[in-house]
Amino acid sequence: MSNDTTVTSIADIIINELKLEDVTPETFDPDLDLVDEVGIDSMDLATIALRIRDEYGIRIDEDDYPKLTTVRIIAAYIDDKLQDND
Question: Fewer CB under 10 Å: which end of the chain, C or N?
Fold first, then answer.
């Protein structure tokens, strides 16, 4: 289960990378499907993965990209990776 801080941080990364207007990390629905509802493509996801690597120091395996469909799922993935590193 992801924590709210991680969810907000991932939402902020996505909002900034996609230059979304009229939305904040607090108002971004963490359960929106990023591909079908937000419209990100594989290049966007690769850029977001690089930002996550820079922010959290973890690498997202490209094989995991298809599973990372919402902000909440990405946040849980990150939290799990961070716990594994402890």
Answer: C
For residue 51, the enclosing domain spans 4-85
| pLDDT tens column, 12-71 | 999 999 999 999 999 999 999 999 999 999 899 999 999 999 999 999 998 999 999 999
Angle at 54 between CA 63 and CA 77, to 5 degrees: 45
Contact 12/25 with Cβ under 8 angstroms? yes
Distances from the Cα of 55 to the Cαs of 33, 49, 51, 52, 82, in angstroms?
A: 22, 10, 6, 5, 12
pLDDT interval class at 2 (50, 70, 90): low
